[in-house]
Amino acid sequence: MHLRLLAFFTLINSTVMLSQTSRKLSASRDVTEDCKGCLECSGDNGCLKCPEKLFLFIRREGMRQQGSCLHACPAGHFGLRGQDVNRCIKCKTPNCERCFSKDFCMKCKVGFLLFKGKCLSDCPEGTVPHLTDCVEGCELGFWGEWSPCSHNERSCGQRWGSQSRDRELSRRGPDEATACPPQSETRRCRLKKRCPGAEKRKNEKKNGRKKGRKQRKPQVTATVTAQASATVTKRAGAVVTEPPGGT
């Protein structure tokens, strides 16, 4: 009896120890995955310190912070080297994709133009857009005339169309040929809904139908007149040929 109880307790103790060991191994594997390339690591927060050539990037997920060691900082961050650790710092300039420092942008997000480290939706006065930057020092001339209003190369048949005009440089040197391209703008314009040729064809078709109806009316009248004359003639003949002393 005592031997059976001893064996039973020994089995329970072994099961508990195996379960604890399994949990420790699982936690160790998770920590190992989060601590790849780290010099110092925490099971809760990931990397705390990176090798000399790598940058420590801290990703925030709600209240939790998770560190990782990267060769290059992600978009919207720049690398700042320090004595103890190199860190990835977030860019403070709005709409910036890559920055040199927290307040000086080097590349803007799509739809924005770079000018003196800032990301703008439109270039300031005295500058022109070129690729992804605003270029200054271009002396622009006057705007040209608006092009004819059209829609798919047609000047009528639609309610709205578009027209454009260009603005050339007043002076163009060899260095300005690519950095200062001509400007252009487009605006909406009103079209003639009916094309003149189509209106003429419509009127000709309408007049043709009216003429056809007029030509058909005399024929009908002549037919009716002829039928009436024949009826009268028959009746007259009947009166002439009636024998005397009839009714």
Automatic annotation (TrEMBL):
It comes from Lepisosteus oculatus (Spotted gar). Residues 207-217 have a biased composition (Basic residues). Keywords: Disulfide bond, Glycoprotein, Heparin-binding, Secreted, Sensory transduction, Signal, Wnt signaling pathway. One of its GO terms (cellular component) is extracellular space. It comes from the Eukaryota. The keyword Glycoprotein applies. This is R-spondin 4. One of its GO terms (biological process) is positive regulation of canonical Wnt signaling pathway. Belongs to the R-spondin family.
